[in-house]
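User: Can you recover a sequence for this backbone? Please restate the input before giving your answer.

Assistant: Of course. Working from this structure:
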C-alpha cells in the first residue's frame, strides 16, 4: 500500500539507531542504511542528520515521519475495510429483479430459510427485460447474480443455467381495458374467435408450443408472433393494436392499461429459481434448504399454484 522503505525509515526514527532498527527488522545494518539512502534520494530530502554522536531526524524527516504514521494508520484501515468487504461478499447472495421477473417469490422463500443461514445477507440487483439482455443476465448467473426467479421452460434459458421449479403460473390473456373482452371475468377459446392473438413464436418453449397447437385448431383465431422474450414494448403493442396478448397470471399488474383474464384451458408454465450451471457450495446449501422447506411446507408463496 505504500513504499516499503517508509517502514524502515519509521523504525530507524523510533530506534534512534541504524543498528537497533536492523535488529528489530531482522536485516543487516548495511541493508537499513541502503534503504534510507535510497529513500532520501527518491524524495530528494535529507531525513536524518548523521553525527559521531548518532542520528536525529531533520525538520524534513520529522514531517515525513508524522505523515508516514498517518499513512500507516490509513493503510491499515483500508486493508481492514477491504477484508470486511471481501468477507461480506462471500456471504452475500445477489438476486436479480425486473418488471417481468420480480424477486418477490424468492424473498418469500428467503425469509423462511434465512434463519438457517446466519451471517448471510441478500442484495437485490435490478435488470432490464429486453430481448437480448435477458440472455446476458442468465449467462451472468454466478457472476453478476447468484439467483434469478421467473417463469421458465425456455430452451435458450435452460442451456445457460440450472432451474429449481417452485410451482406453475397459469397462461392467461391480456386485453386493453376498453376492449369488449375486458368486461368478462373468464374467457373461453370461443371468445377469441375473430381476434388476433399475440403470442411467442414457436420453437423455444414447449408449454407455449402446446398452447399454440391448441389455438391453431381454431382457425377463427389469427396469430401474431411476438419476440421469444417479452419486454414492455410487447405489452405496449397490445395496447396500441387492441389485439389480445397471451400472458401469465403473474404479469397482471405489469401494464396499467391492460386487464389480465384467466382462460378456460389447462395450460400452465413452471416458475422457479434460476441458478448457475456450476453453483458454489453456499448456493447449493441455500437450494438444499429451499427443497427442505418445500417438502415440509407445501404452501407456496402467495398467489402461486403448486406443480401438478
Amino acid at each position: 500500500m505504500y513504499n516499503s522503505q517508509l517502514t524502515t525509515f519509521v523504525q530507524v526514527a523510533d530506534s534512534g539507531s541504524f543498528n537497533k532498527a536492523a535488529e528489530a527488522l531482522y536485516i543487516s545494518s548495511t541493508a537499513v542504511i541502503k534503504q534510507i539512502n535510497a529513500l532520501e534520494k527518491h524524495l530528494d530530502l535529507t531525513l536524518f542528520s548523521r553525527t559521531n554522536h548518532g542520528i536525529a531526524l531533520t525538520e524534513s524527516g520529522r514531517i515525513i515521519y508524522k505523515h508516514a504514521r498517518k499513512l500507516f494508520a490509513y493503510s491499515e484501515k483500508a486493508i481492514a475495510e477491504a477484508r470486511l468487504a471481501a468477507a461480506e461478499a462471500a456471504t452475500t447472495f445477489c438476486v436479480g429483479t425486473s418488471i417481468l421477473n420480480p424477486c418477490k417469490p424468492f424473498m418469500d422463500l428467503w425469509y423462511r430459510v434465512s434463519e438457517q443461514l446466519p451471517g448471510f445477507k441478500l442484495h437485490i440487483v435490478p435488470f432490464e427485460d429486453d430481448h437480448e439482455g435477458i440472455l446476458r443476465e442468465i449467462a451472468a448467473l454466478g457472476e453478476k447474480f447468484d439467483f434469478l426467479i421467473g417463469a421458465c421452460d425456455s430452451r435458450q434459458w435452460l442451456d445457460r443455467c440450472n432451474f429449481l421449479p417452485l410451482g406453475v403460473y397459469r397462461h392467461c390473456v391480456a386485453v386493453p381495458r376498453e376492449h369488449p373482452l375486458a368486461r368478462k371475468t373468464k374467457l373461453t377459446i370461443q371468445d377469441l374467435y375473430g381476434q388476433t392473438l399475440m403470442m411467442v413464436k414457436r420453437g423455444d418453449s414447449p408449454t407455449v408450443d402446446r398452447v399454440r397447437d391448441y389455438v391453431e385448431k381454431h382457425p377463427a383465431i389469427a396469430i401474431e408472433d411476438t419476440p421469444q422474450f417479452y419486454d414492455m414494448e410487447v405489452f405496449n403493442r397490445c395496447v396500441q393494436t387492441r389485439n389480445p396478448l397471451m400472458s401469465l397470471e403473474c404479469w397482471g399488474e405489469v401494464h396499467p392499461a391492460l386487464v389480465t383474464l384467466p382462460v378456460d384451458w389447462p395450460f400452465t408454465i413452471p416458475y422457479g429459481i434460476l441458478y448457475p450451471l456450476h453453483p458454489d457450495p453456499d448456493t447449493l446449501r441455500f437450494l438444499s434448504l429451499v427443497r427442505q422447506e418445500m417438502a415440509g411446507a407445501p404452501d407456496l408463496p402467495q398467489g402461486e399454484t403448486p406443480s401438478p
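That completes the design. The two ends are 59 Å apart (CA to CA).
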